[in-house]
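My current task is to audit a protein record that another person submitted. What it holds is a sequence and that sequence's fold in token form. Thanks in advance; the entry in question is below.
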Amino acid sequence: MAKASQTNWWPPWHIGGACLVGSLLLGLATLNAAQPASKSAAETPPPVLTLDEAVRWTLEHNPDLVALRQQHGIAEAGVIIARAKPFNPTLEARVQGAEGPRSAAITNRVPNEHLLLFTVETRSQAGHRLRGASATLSRTDWEIAFQEQTAAVRVVRAFHAVLYQQEKLKLVEEAVRLNELGARQVRQLADQGKLRGADLLVAVSEVDNVRRALGPGRATLTTARTELFRALGAEAGAFELRGPKEYAPLHLDTEQLQQVALEGRADLRARQAAVSEAEARLRLEMANRFGNPVVGPIWVYDPTGVHTFGAQMNVPIPLYNVHRGEILQRQAERDRAVLDVRRNEVLIRQDVQAAVARLRDARAWVNIYKKEILPNLQKSLEGIEKLFTEGDPGVDVIKILDLRRKLLSARDGYLDAVWELAASVGPDGHFVGLAAGRLRPKCCASWGRSRARPGQGRARGRNAAGRVDRDSRHASAVA
């Protein structure tokens, strides 16, 4: 009788999700500037695609990300607008004609009056505007980074799903081969009169029972490949997937992982930048509540030929409207932004706790299969095949086929356990968010030390290519 595969089978892609994606995003090369979409060969994934190459290719070519990065240019233009003076000077000129009796002593028939007026901001409105625009730019860059993390998680999930479905289909095909081989052997023994015809019918029906899973398996694999194409942002291409063979296990220190997440999650950083943005808007509204004076020089050439010089000042009187409603709106927006930060912090802690618990359960599940169930079934199969070879009258082909079916079912369950472990470490768990959270935009490299100051918006912003800084110190902390 043919022997089943050995129990030390271990899918080559098994659980490299989080650490690989985290280190990849930390060491990701500078992204190219967004270019109009083209159907050149450069936008086709390479023929052999590893997990890190899939994530890198997605971050560089995914059309959703390419379009999203244009938000940086919009926010950067807001910084330029904030630097500009909001009010242009006003030139007011009055030219008149003068007529009258001789006693009026008119010597100038064309009297003139000219005023050059400037609106002056006396309450640091320019600084508040620039701080608000810089905070908007920081928030936009962190939101882009978060969407990059989300795209990376999606492509890792799709990558693992394809490998998982490939392994499931291979397992079904192997089960078909083993049952066909067993049916042929039963037929030979039945022809020799060593087995009954009923045994042959059972063996043949087992082949048909296993073959019915081939169609759904292939359909599921096709669906997984389609999702991978969508995650990559690729229109077409034929490539072979190569998953990681091993990974460095995460140390399940919940408090440390929570601290890393609170420091590096891009969505939390975006909410923190939104607080600075709302605070700057509140201060600007409070500074504008009394209005701005208008001042400037004045020159008058009257009908008697006398030249007069001086200055004019127009000061608004906040008698009926001091913008109280607008200020209350800005205060509410600031308070809501602060509460959003607190809500995100709570959610992140909950995410880490849930991910750690899920990972521990998945590890225990895999270890039971790897160390107990699969070795025991393989040992039992080898023992019963040996007894059958020795001619033990209590052993027949049906019992061997039944034990093989149990072993294949256990391998299928083991594959599910490995998939659960891969999901808990990477795409479906929250450790990817922890590791990928260190994708730090340049504009936010010093976020948290001080709020944006006037003149810093350009230096603190992303460039047009959407470049990101890499924090190599976090790689060792997470891995």
Summary: Residues 116 and 452 are 34 Å apart (CA to CA). The longest helix spans residues 125-191.
